Structure formats: structure tokens, C-alpha cells
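When time allows, look over one protein, given below as sequence and C-alpha cells. The question is which stretches look regular and which look disordered:
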Amino acid sequence: MHKCRQIISFLIFCCLALSGAAQGNEAVFLNRRFSFSEEGESLDRVLERISELAGINFSYDPTLVDTEQSIDANYVNKSLQFILSDLLGPEFTFQELGNQIVIRLEESSFDLVPDSEEYQIFSGLIMDREFNEPIPYASVSILDKAFGTITNTEGKFELKIPPKYQHEMIVVSCLGYQRELLDSTLLPAENLLITLNPINIRLKEIKVRAIKPMWVMEQMVDHIPLNYPKQSRLMTAFYREVLTQDDAYINVSEAVLEVLKAPYNIPFRDDRIRFIKGRKSADVEAFQWVDFKMQGGPYYTNQLDVVKTMDSFLDQTYWTDYKYEAGSMVDYLGRPTYVIYFSPNGKKDFLTYEGKLFIDQENFALVHAEFSLSKYGMRMARETLIRKKPRGFFVRALGLHYQVSYRKTGELWYLNSAQSSASFRVRNREDNVNSVFHSVSDLLITKHEPTRLRRFPKEEQLNSSDIFTEIISDYDPEFWGSYNIIQPTDDLRKAIRALGVESGNNQTQ
């Protein structure tokens, strides 16, 4: 049952015994030597020939390279670095990303980073006005525009506003709170303290019982064509993977991605994702005993867009396998919202989930979902989650939790953020190993716009087999420029600062 596997597939880990080999970022393909000759062939054909010989793909901006020029060349035992420099010229640089070589002009390294000097930057803290506590995952955005960010788990945020939005209102909102509208022209740039009022829509018990959860679910499915876009959208997204071992930070990886979101009324067309730029820490602390790697992180975190993937608890085919119950109504982004709880109604032969759905009372859009694998789902998933493990090691999944939210722009709802959290215990009696690994993956859509694009070049796409931490490298304190990101927590910031990190960046054109 393919539908029931889509969400958890990204939690396939490579659990490998550590080797003594260096794990640096040394060039592999660029140092290899090749011998071949070409006469009167186009540069495009020569690059194809090299691609076949070396088993690699090239990524470059076709406007910067004259691929139609005729090439006469004869190379005998020359490195790929030498060959590419000879063919393209000294003004080009080459960088390996897995089995891909990115070609770019030396001076264009930061072309994809907006000019931060033109941006207004606001930073601060969002608190619960009643209990004086930080509010995590609150939305901070431009009113009625597809542009914004969210707070981290400590309630902190930073919003970078381009010139065209600098006279617009800022809206701050979160599930269960009354939203706040702020005039950006009257706000200080730093140390903003924004407080939100909790709001609780209380209905008489007889009214709560009168809400028929299956009727709400039917309305939600029937209204998908009205509530979600029927045209492709090009989305800019921030993605972060954090891995800890026994509460110690092991690895932090971050990237700006582009998501080509397919129309919601064409379920067979998959979304496409490509890497724009990224950075990762050196290991904050060395892995102990095993090296954990997560496969397909960005690809499958995007699959948490459950309205698009229609996993089992939303698919009418499986509704008889679940129990649905109505909870009290809440306020979401200033709108009355149904809360529908769901859980499997017994043991099933496919992966099942439990959690709650937040469905807008007025237009029946699914606006937020929180769910996890059920008890039976966890038992079934344990064998499928681990791709490899060292002999003698026992790996058990402790918990897998997910959440996804949508934000309304105009009359439609768009993917806003997604998060997955997974914990695994690793044991080996012979070596007296007993360790808990915890992975958190966050995806935040910071802006989106209509597009006529149907696909990205194949060599630029991230797919389900990619190991994200092996695609990116390096660190730069000014790395993000004017991109909006989720601010790191204080603990995470201290861990990154303690790395002794290197500077650099990766971009595909």
C-alpha cells in the first residue's frame, strides 16, 4: 500500500560502523585522470562524453557557457580539473556535490543571495501575554503576502523584508492565539517583544457532541479543489536537520531549497526539489560507536504536505480503518477551527497513524496537522526504517512525530512549514553500547510565486536516495544573506559557535 509508506520513508537511516578513513571533503572526481580526444565536436557533446567517462553530472548556467562552440582537444592522462579549466577557461570554478560538479563563474559565487543592505531586518521574541512564556512556531509574515518566517522553540525570530514589502503590515499569529497586526514603519529593528493573547472558543458540550467528525472530514476532502492551488508554485524554503546523540549535538545541516510544488488537483505529478545553497557544521562532537546518516531528508519532509500526498488518514478508502472524534473548537489565525482526533480502530496490516487535524470552520481547509505512528504502526515500521546497521547492533525506533501547517494567502492555502522528529535507541551488548539518537528536520516556506516551470534539470534535483549531509559542506557567519530562516535556539547557536567552522558556500545555478 504505497500511500501508507510515503510519510515515514525519509526516516531510513544508514547506521554504519565508524571506519578509520578520513571523512573530509576532498575532491574525488576532479583529481581523476582521463585520456581522450575530440575533433570538431560541440562543447555540449564534449561535456556529455566526460560525463559518461567519469560517471558524473554537470550543473551550470547555460547563459554563461557557450555550449555550441566547436572543440578540438587531445588529453593524455590529465586530471578532470585541468580538462575543465582548459575547455572553459580560468574564470570558471568547479565544485563537487556528491556525483555532481557545479560549474560557475568565480565572481558569481554569491549571485543567488539577495543584497541584504536593501532589506529591513526585524528580530525579537514572541510571548504568551497571560503566562509570560515564549510561543514556538508562531508565524511572522507580511499581511496577505506569501512571505514570512516562524519563531524557533524559544519564541525568537528574525524577519528580513525586501523593499517592495517595507510599507506593508506585519501579522503575527499562532494556533490558539489572537493574531496581532503591526505597522512595520513604527517598529524598532531589534529586541522586539510581541505578546499574543490566548483565545479559546468554548462551545456548550451539546454543540461539541453535535459536530459530526465524518461530515467535517467529507467536507474537507470535497473542498480541496477550492482551497489549494491548481497551478504550480515555485517556493523558496529553508531546511534544517539537527542530530543529537544522548542530548549532545552531533551534526547541524541547513540549506535554502527551491520546491516546485505541483498542483493539488494533479495527484500523480510529484513535487520537485533542488538545492540552492547550504552549510553544515563539522561534527559538534564526534559520533560514538556508530555514524548515523539520514537518507532523503528534504524530499520526504516535503511529503508531509498530507493534503498533497493524501495519506491513509485523509484518504476516504481507509476511513473505515480509523476512528474520528470531534474535540473543542480553537482559534487558528483568527479563524474558528474544528479539531478532529483520529486513531486506528485496531491492528492493521499497513502503517497507521494517530493525531489531530485542524480544519477551518468556514471553508473546511486542513490548516494544521499533528500526528505520529500508532503503536501498531511503530511495530511495523521498525524493520523498514533502518537501511543498514553494523553486525551485532540492535536499533529500535522510540518515537516518530510529525506536524505540518498551511498559511492562507488570498483565497487559497499554501504549505507553510513541516517538521519531523524521530528517536532511535542503539545497543550493542558486546561493546557495552547503549545510546539514543534524536533527529529533527524542519522545512519552512519563506516565499512562493506562480510559475510555468514543470521540472528542474534532473541533475539538480534532490531525491529520496540523497543523503543531505553529504551534499553540503562548510560554514560562513554571513552565509544566509537576506534569506529568511528559522533562528537557531541558544543551545544550538552555542554548539555551532563551538565548532571552529570553515567558510564557503554551495550553489547550483
Q: What stands out?
A: The chain has three domains: 2-22+204-497, 33-98, 116-196. The two ends are 38 Å apart (CA to CA). The CA atoms of residues 417 and 444 lie 4 Å apart. The first strand starts at residue 12 and ends at 17.
